[in-house]
Design a protein that fits this description.
CATH class: Alpha Beta
Strand content: 15-25%
CATH architecture: 2-Layer Sandwich
Number of domains: 1
Helix content: 25-40%
CATH topology: Nucleotidyltransferase, domain 5
Shape: globular
Structural class: alpha/beta
Radius of gyration: 22 Å
Number of strands: 9
Largest sheet: 9 strands, mixed
Distance between the termini: 80 Å
Number of helices: 7
Order of helices and strands: HHEEEEHEHEHHEHEE
Length: 272
């Protein structure tokens, strides 16, 4: 009988090692992927040069609220690890935190709206509204338009009717013209909010159980970087309904203009 140590040694001698899965396969790339990246980059530069905001938006991973293990480690006195629940059963949670972020690419500031119900298009637009109320309108007092860079799916998806419908309401309330550019399918990791804001939030609360919503809001708000990242987190206790259907008649009333370049991903919504 061969021991496990012997097997391990022999595998090592043969060039084998223990390795985890690596996410690298994105699947087939859309035909217009590269041209869309160039279009977003050019439009963002031009918008910032004009003194208007360019924001990157997305929903961060949902988090269970309660005494659950949070990935990562933190400094504590030796032999005093934080004790958490052995199991992560749903019926043991105090709820779910849904952090939707709005990140100002030029100012390096952001707002995270922490929802408690569902990640819907209405919730996504309300999160952008929170950014405009807390940061945007003060930092861009003379602005007449906003450029939004968003993923192609989810609550702010390019085919999501409700996303466009609620954006039109935001436009009417603020009298701002909003241009939306979506990243092509399978390229969400290039969305700037992922590596400029969300990644630092994850680092800041690593090893810290998210025992309640107050902890989530505080940990997000305390996140900063050497480059001066500032984040304001707010709790959104509204109950958002899922499955909201937007009719053809409602869509026909939107003042939306699709761009000539990659019209499936680029459009502008103006005040009626």
């Amino acid at each position: 009988m061969i021991s496990a140590d012997t097997v391990g040694r022999r595998l090592n001698e043969m060039g084998y090692s223990l390795q985890a899965n690596v996410k690298t396969i994105e699947g087939d790339s859309p035909e217009d992927r590269d041209s869309q990246f160039r279009y977003i980059n050019e439009l963002a530069k031009r918008t910032i040069a004009q003194g208007n905001p360019v924001i990157s938006v997305d929903t961060k991973k949902k988090e269970k609220i309660g005494l659950f293990k949070n990935a990562g480690r933190k400094w504590l006195p030796k032999g005093t690890p934080t004790e958490v629940n052995t199991y992560d059963f749903t019926n043991m949670t105090e709820g779910t935190a849904i952090p939707y972020g709005t990140y100002d690419i030029d100012k390096n500031h952001g707002v995270v709206n922490v929802g408690v119900s569902h990640d819907t298009a209405e919730f996504a637009v309300e999160s952008i509204r929170q950014w405009w109320r807390l940061f945007g309108r003060r930092q861009y007092p003379g602005s007449e338009k906003i450029l939004i860079c968003a993923d192609g799916g989810g609550s702010n998806g390019s085919r999501n009717r409700a996303w466009k419908y609620f954006l039109q309401q935001f436009v009417e309330d603020t009298k701002l013209s909003i241009t939306v550019c979506h990243y092509p399918p399978g390229t969400s990791k290039w969305n700037k909010i992922e590596h400029r804001m969300f990644s630092f939030i994850s680092m800041n609360w690593r090893g810290e159980p998210l025992v309640d919503y107050e902890t989530v809001v505080n940990m997000i708000s305390l996140t900063t970087t050497r480059k001066g990242l500032k984040i304001k987190a707010v709790l959104d206790s509204k109950q958002y309904e899922t499955g909201v259907k937007i009719t053809d008649d409602q869509m026909s009333k939107l003042k939306i203009k699709y761009h000539k370049k990659n019209a499936q991903w680029n459009y502008t919504i103006s005040p009626a």
